[in-house]
Design a protein that fits this description.
With 232 residues, the protein is α/β, with parallel strands linked by helices. It is built from 8 helices and 6 strands; from the N terminus they run E-H-H-H-H-H-E-H-E-H-E-H-E-E. Helix 8 links the parallel strand 4 (184-188) and strand 5. The longest helix has 22 residues, at 21-42. It is globular.
């Protein structure tokens, strides 16, 4: 890698950035919603225990039974609450769906080629999403365009990095990957996330795609296609 290169690592968001929001909320959320109550009931004493404990604590309902926790989690799912307990359960439940062929990672058409080009050029690629690391890995491995996981050097989520709208989360990621903040480029569709990344010293570019819920907001540069990104 050139000693004069200003960007060494590129970190991408998923929902609305690499992938259509609808594919996440309709496919992954729908699969989770259908199976969540049964999964909780069947995994008491095992994988469901930390999910139940985390949901009860966050909801402030320590006495909630399994059915009530399921209702809480489904409500959070429907309202897109970024809760670690929910993301943990979703990661485990959806892992089965990816492996059975019921679920696939969906990507905007420009994304796979750009990721491959950046990887071949020597940029280290990372993912930072509110979805669990487990879901992220499956999303890229079982991608509709073919396995993209070999292109990704690492994944970060709410539990490993922190909330996506806080600068401290981006500082933590920079420390974990060992790249100076000013040499990291972040791509996201959410202005608040771009603000937080910039506050942590990163470069950031907004991604605004047709039909997606988030639109451009100053002062960031915005693009509509990964081909417009020319990291150097």
């Amino acid at each position: 890698m050139s000693a004069t290169r200003s960007i060494e690592a590129i970190v991408v968001d998923i929902e609305g950035t690499t992938s259509p929001t609808s594919s996440v909320r309709e496919e992954l959320y729908g699969y989770t919603r259908t199976r969540l109550p049964g999964w909780l009931a069947e995994n008491i004493g095992g994988a469901a225990d930390p999910v139940l404990a985390g949901a009860r604590e966050q909801a402030g309902r320590p006495e909630a039974d399994v059915a009530q926790v399921a209702a809480i989690l489904i409500d959070w799912l429907n309202t897109d609450v970024k809760a670690e307990s929910l993301k943990t359960a979703q990661g485990i439940i959806c892992a089965e769906g990816f492996r059975s062929g019921a679920l696939f990672g969906e990507f905007f058409p420009d994304v796979p080629a750009a990721l491959r080009e950046w990887h071949a050029a020597g940029f280290a690629l990372y993912v930072y999403s509110s979805g669990s690391v487990r879901n992220q890995r499956d999303w890229f491995e079982f991608a509709r365009p073919g396995d993209l996981s070999p292109l990704i050097s690492g994944h970060f989520d709410l539990s490993t990095a922190g909330p996506k709208r806080e600068a401290a989360s981006y500082e933590k990621i920079a420390g974990a990957i060992g790249v100076p903040a000013q040499r990291i480029l972040f791509l996201s569709d959410h202005p608040d996330e771009l603000d937080a990344a910039v506050a942590a010293g990163w470069s950031a570019i907004g991604v605004a795609r047709p039909g997606e819920p988030n639109g451009p907001r100053p002062p960031h540069r915005w693009i509509g296609d990964f081909a417009e990104v020319q990291p150097s």
